[in-house]
Design goal:
By secondary structure, this protein is mainly alpha-helical. It contains 8 helices and 2 strands.
């Protein structure tokens, strides 16, 4: 049909299903005295809880948004490390691999960036629509203008508002491009080394695989942290005000 299903999309589906199965299994493994898996996950949870609270400065707001950021980090972490999963890379459909590292596809990282930046603006519009729109389309100074200098300042403010709109588009491009570029470059680097000669297919790529694993973990953390900062800068103040007014 008209909807194309890419191998990166199939990789995303495989990761999502795998995480869902793991979540159901782990739900029945939680104990008062944590095991290794539970301790590792609690360590990750504690780290991102502290990061979220430090950025938003409001325990109520950070608690509401924390599940979003932790889910984003976990999905990105497994998406970036997808190439090291056994057997998945060897499955083919025709002459093409059936699965592909999701974040090595620009459409995947672009969709994530659009979702996160769009979420921040939806929250801001839902909380203070006129105030948020006024931050980009500054018409109020024109209404309050009483002299030519006021009109000049209003025109300057309107121009700066247009630059802010361009800045929001740049956020999407920087978020998606950084993640895509690093993961795609890592996959290409390993593939090139493995294709140089038959004796480079097994032991020579191992250090580069570890480098790719480290880079994938770092990029997942960087993407999540920058997303937290962007959402805090766009909607953090509105969420704090709403939290104070709510019973």
């Amino acid at each position: 049909g008209p909807l194309s299903i890419t191998n990166a999309f199939l990789g995303t589906i495989a990761i999502t299903l795998g995480l869902c199965v793991f979540a159901v299994w782990f739900h029945f493994q939680i104990r008062l005295v944590p095991g290794r898996t539970q301790a590792a996950l609690e360590l990750i949870q504690t780290f991102w809880t502290r990061q979220t609270q430090a950025v938003f400065g409001d325990a109520g707001v950070s608690a509401r948004l924390f599940p979003l950021f932790l889910t984003l980090f976990i999905i990105l972490l497994f998406s970036n490390e997808f190439s090291v999963f056994p057997l998945l890379g060897s499955l083919t459909y025709g002459d093409r691999p059936l699965f592909r590292t999701p974040t090595s596809d620009l459409s995947h990282t672009l969709a994530l960036a659009l979702l996160m930046i769009g979420f921040s603006h939806i929250v801001a519009l839902a909380t203070h629509p006129l105030k948020h729109i006024g931050n980009f389309i500054k018409l109020k100074p024109f209404i309050q203008a009483r002299s030519f200098s006021d009109i000049g300042n209003a025109c300057l403010g309107l121009f700066l508002g247009m630059l802010d709109i361009i800045g929001e588009i740049a956020k999407v491009m920087s978020l998606s491009g950084r993640l895509f570029g690093n993961i795609f470059a890592g996959d290409v680097m390993v593939a090139v080394i493995m294709a140089l000669a038959s004796f480079t297919q097994f032991f020579v790529p191992i250090p580069f695989l570890f480098l790719s694993l480290f880079s994938g973990a770092v990029q997942a953390a960087v993407f999540t942290m920058i997303t937290i900062l962007f959402i805090s800068g766009t909607a953090g103040g509105y969420l704090s005000e709403r939290q104070v007014r709510s019973p």
